[in-house]
Amino acid sequence: MEAKTVSQSRVELAQILMPEHANVAGNVHGGNLLKLVDQVGAIVAARHTQLM
Fold it and tell me: Whole-angstrom Cα distance, residue 32 to residue 4?
């Protein structure tokens, strides 16, 4: 099996966060951030294993 470079699995995700994603102080809820990290992790894993 051939080694892969970072650029072969790299993913950038852009997400528009609305007011309902933040608390009264204007900070994004941790659960929303973890959800985004989980989504990106799944995409990277799929690209790295060439499932996508």
Answer: 30
